[in-house]
Amino acid sequence: MNPPEPSRHGPAHNPRRGGRGGSRPGPTPPQRQSGRRGPARAEPPTDAPVDPARLAARDVLRAVRDRSAYANLMLPKLLRDRRITGRAAAFATELAYGACRAQGLLDEIIAAAAGRPANEIDGTILDILRLAAYQLLRTRVAPHAAVSTAVAMARTEGGERITGFVNAVLRRVSEKTEEQWIAQLAPTDPIGRAAFTHAHPRWIGQAFADALGAGAAEIDEALAADDARPTIHLVARPGEITGEELALVTGGTEGNYSPYAVHLESGDPGELDPVRDGLASVQDEGSQLVALAALRAPVSGEDGGRWLDLCAGPGGKAVLMGAIAAIDGARLDAVEISTHRAELVRTSVKGLPVAVHEADGRESGLEPGYDRVLVDAPCTGLGALRRRPEARWRKQSSDVAGLARLQRELLDAAIDLVRPGGIVVYSTCSPHVAETIGVVSHAIRKRGGEAVPAGEVLNEVPRAAAGPAGEFVQLWPHRHGTDAMFIAVLRKPE
Ligand SMILES: C[S@@+](CC[C@H](N)C(=O)[O-])C[C@H]1O[C@@H](n2cnc3c(N)ncnc32)[C@H](O)[C@@H]1O
């Protein structure tokens, strides 16, 4: 079997794709490509055995489709169970995550090549076609290897009757580059086109464009960054290790904004000593900035050290706030509605001055008078799609209204719980304006108070102003290399 071949998708940028920039289609050498290439014409399939990496990727696609599994939970377990390591593990990861991210785009191309909608193709065969189409269009894998392994998998699934179909569809897919397929199939309006090109549902492209507002011309860049494999972000635990030390120990690079952030290109963070020893954990740098904003924003009068995290599970921000509370002599209450997630918070805050309460944040029963409250609200998660490969194809625009209602209620409860002159930070890992500016503007209209310019609290972060007067912060993968976190800082009227 051919050894796994690296993707053209690099880690830190959107490295797409051979053929962009006007390379002319042409005959393709059968072996590994470097840089641009023309259409990846497939050789006749041979009866190759299928390697463990492709089988693992196929099984992930199947579990995602069949059982609504999460690819980023399923794959690491499967690799461990099957003892797939090294290059093979990296190849399986690239294929599984890449094909999940690109699913909608791949389905349009497969449908065009098959002459029928993707949802009319048997699911197990569609998984195989997606996997092979991904290899043909977005990696340097030799086309004959992509096709022959797909045909071999199809033979196991459906016998000889299906191999001809799979072979014919993939041959048609391989006759064009990704760019040529996009030119043929993409809608012509700018947002529809950008969404199609960067493999996002249209409504998400529209939500990004709405949130970019005056910056909507960046839509291509924004969706491209959201479609690229993200780097791993670690957070150094304050009081235990500095960001600089963590970067040295792990070979990573220090973050751009958070003093605790370290970025790694790849690898399994669970294998790192500082992570094993509880000195560091995985947390997007944008999430670190949320916790920092909650602790840095100036309260009126003395900070009495009574802090609250109203939506704490699984506990990333509670750990960072709790570690700083330990240094500052403060105490944090952490509320979480889900039993399982409250337990995760309990485990991660052990040894810190944090009390975990399993409760509905809208009626927590906690004594009002907090100096600082963080509402890191449940949301659509549209700002963290790059870290959840299949998520963009599962979410529905109809989820937004119900979440916005819950977000307004949680923010209202937070304002009840904070003392006059105290600070409420409202954040979402979604840039959708109905979940961000819409919720905060509603609270200010209803409850009064002022928005403290979040950009002043996080003055090290450039080009992040959002909202009617630029009073909120909206982070973006393409501008900041973080998830698309929204942050508003409110001070309760005295
Ligand atoms: C965006 S996550 C919070 C992430 C967390 N702050 C962290 O950094 O790890 C939102 C959390 O709110 C919880 N949640 C949902 N509805 C809630 C409610 N009514 N009261 C309290 N927590 C709620 C969800 O279970 C979820 O764990």
TrEMBL record:
Report if keyword ATP-binding is assigned.
no
The protein, known as: rRNA small subunit methyltransferase B
- Whether Methyltransferase counts among this entry's keywords is yes
Q: Which SUPFAM superfamilies match?
A: NusB-like, S-adenosyl-L-methionine-dependent methyltransferases
Task: Cite the InterPro entries for this sequence.
Answer: MeTrfase_RsmB-F_NOP2_cat, MeTrfase_RsmB-F_NOP2_dom, NusB-like_sf, NusB_RsmB_TIM44, RCMT, SAM-dependent_MTases_sf
Functional note: May act as RNA methyltransferase.
Compositionally skewed regions (Basic residues) per UniProt: 10-19
Query: Domain named SAM-dependent MTase RsmB/NOP-type: which ranges?
Result: 208-493
- Identify the CDD domains for this entry: AdoMet_MTases
Q: Which domain of life is it from?
A: Bacteria
Instruction: Cite a single Pfam family from the UniProt record.
Output: NusB
Species name: Lolliginicoccus lacisalsi
State the UniProt keywords alphabetically.
Methyltransferase, RNA-binding, S-adenosyl-L-methionine, Transferase
